[in-house]
Amino acid sequence: MSDSEESKDKKKKAEPHAKSIDPAALEMLQxxxxxxxxxxxxxxxxxxxCPIGAAGSCCQLCAMGPCRLVGKNAxxxxxxxxxxxxxxxxxxxxxxxxxxVAAHSDHGRxxxxxxxxxxxxxxxxxxxxxxxxxxxxxALMKISTExxxxxxxxxxxxxxxxxxxxxxxxxxxTYVSRAPKKRQELWRKLKLVPRGVxxxxxxxxxxxxxxxxxxxxxxxxxxMRTSLADGWGGAMLATDLSDILFGTPKPLVSExxxxxxxxxxxxxxxxxxxxxxxxxxxxxxxxxxxxxxxKSKGAKGITLAGICxxxxxxxxxxxxxxxxxxxxxxxxxxxxxxxxxxxxxxxxLQALQPLAEKFHTKLITTSPKAxxxxxxxxxxxxxxxxxxxxxxxxxxxxxxxxxxxxxxxxYTGDMVAGFSxxxxxxxxxxxxxxxxxxxxxxxxxxxxQGAVAIVGCNNPRxxxxxxxxxxxxxxxxxxxxxxxxxxxxxxxxxxxxxxxxTLEEAGDGLREVCETVGMPPVLHLGSCVxxxxxxxxxxxxxxEGGLGDDISDLPIAAICPEYYCEKALAIGTYAAASGAxxxxxxxxxxxxxxxxxxxxSNGWEEKVGGQLVFEPDMKKIxxxxxxxxxxxxxxxxxxxxxxxxxxxxAARREL
Length: 655
Known about the structure:
Elements: H1 3-12, H2 23-35, H3 40-46, H4 51-54, E1 58-59, E2 67-68, H5 85-119, H6 131-140, H7 150-166, H8 181-189, H9 197-207, H10 216-246, E3 252-256, E4 266-271, H11 275-285, H12 288-296, E5 302-307, H13 308-318, E6 322-324, H14 329-334, E7 338-343, H15 352-358, E8 362-365, E9 376-377, H16 385-399, E10 413-417, H17 421-429, H18 437-444, E11 450-454, H19 466-477, E12 480-484, H20 486-494, H21 508-517, E13 522-524, H22 531-544, E14 556-560, H23 566-577, E15 581-584, H24 594-608, E16 611-614, H25 618-636, H26 649-654
Parallel strand pairs: 4-5, 4-7, 5-6, 7-8, 8-9, 11-12, 11-14, 12-13, 14-15, 15-16
Antiparallel strand pairs: 1-2, 3-10
Helix pairs in contact: 5-7, 5-9, 5-10, 5-23, 6-7, 6-10, 7-10, 9-10, 10-22, 10-23, 11-13, 11-16, 19-25
């Protein structure tokens, strides 16, 4: 390489930054660096993001381009077809949202298909585990349950769910009725009510084709409608149907990080997003005959752990510990202790297979939708679910003898997980007085200032977990209840922030309420699709009264500090379209598209009461969110000190 070429190569490299605040991750990265092993952490330093595409100034939708709107007067330039910055940025956002919704919706559709097959007795190992939830969902779908068999009800619920995906309901998704009445009316007035998950995704792809919709505001309205098909459709259905099939989560104790792996055991990791597979892997790994088979190969037993949202699914229902979040998938293999990594769909790095070949790990793909060159493919079929799961686990056991050097970082964090919206309702009021009233009252009296959801991914372009942990700690210190899902929840788990001991870091008001109720100040609500639980909780809070009559009135916010994928943008958009203040970290993917930036922040606030904003600085995010919560409290009139009134007996009788 010549000096000039080397100079150019250096310029292409990203600025180095701290990789992680997790000591387990840092230990494995040190091992990787010493061995010259490439990871997502090293590759991100070797490849600088394209500054033109990163800011939304590049359009690649047709063969006349790609068109780059850069240089002097860039905002006034257009693509060859005449597309403005606003059109290009809006098209990007809508397509990203559609991609995220498609991923979550396929997940939900598969759960619905499994439930339908269960109702017909065509699958192995599955059954309806929560009939109470089944009946509640049936009632919401206006399906009669009286005098009917469980599987009969389940079949009709599953078919109605599939209708929501296919778009043959009455031009309005079923779960729109769960939203506050005022929100439903606003969506209908603005024509934002999704008509079917697939229909909205297809229309988004149509509208963003060259030569179709070219009005940024109109395009972004379709982005909101498509995102709502996820938040109040695909994702919400996936959560409810998973609860019906596998059980509605309740609090349980577990631990997290790479230290959950055991040197003397066969270690198997499930990674991805499909609970149908992971449920059967749990059953197979706990089967006495399979455990005896592991012992016959010299192992003490079987340790099962998870990565990403599959980890959350088996954590919240079985207490199976997560080995880490998105950026831990390579690090788990580098321990040398993982005998099999079983993957399905979403967030699975193609780099896993070349890495697995350097160690002894067997990478096994299982979904008909996703293969990785070089990996072993064992296609999962619900009809033989348990048998296939046992075969896969045995493959991991057979690989145990091929281990080399093992280095397991001895770091774990204790946690309590499994807070469904049903359990929070019960937790606040008990079996006979289940209610969100205590939460509303303590927000109104100021002991709890508000609530914030910290959700989403990891991104190697920022320091792993740093902003998530900073924001969690600062928010609870300011008497704000935090709820979490996805990889952000894994981050808090690794540092012990999902344990009751976190009360020591909470403000006096939040601590008093949490101690009284018996809950931690940071609640793990599940996987990324379970952000829909947050929407349901907010609807209950509005219905309970005293904090306005819509989600947009509540002193709440949502933060995705380390996002990296389209699913996150879909989730953030449906939260904003539902009336929430939403802040993303890392970078704004359409920063140069000033019209789009203004619409998503100021325009959406005026139109739907929610905002979607981007801010890479975690301290500024904290300031923005705290200010927004106080702004909402001021608007509700609950920041004023109330005079304490002593009631006499006559007044009590009147109450």
